[in-house]
Amino acid sequence: VQLQAFGGGSVQAGDSLRLSCTASGRIFRGYSLGWFRQAPGKAREFVAASTWSGSAINYADSAKGRFALSKDGARNTAYLQMNDLKPEDTGVYYCAASYAGYVGEHDKFDTWGQGTLVTVSS
Fold it and tell me: Across the chain, where does the E strand assignment appear?
């Protein structure tokens, strides 16, 4: 599976963005797709992840209530809807796939896409 993330941009605090992650190759229901972000000068951190079937979903505390995962199976695309964005949400966002359906917060994903930059101004 190869992943491609896009949809980043520069927005104001309080705005919304929807990131997309398109997968090439077959996605099995047991796979999971996750989102991580890396702010300048900081370590990469977990944002959210879900199995492709939706049976398991996990959000970082910073994402709960503001971010939401969804997917379009026909397009092999997963989405991260981000609402009420804050300056601390700024960073490069990566999507990743786990062939084992991992949705945890650690860096145990198998395949990573290129990042897409999100910049939130106050």
Answer: 2-6, 9-12, 17-24, 32-38, 45-51, 57-59, 67-72, 77-82, 91-98, 111-112, 116-121
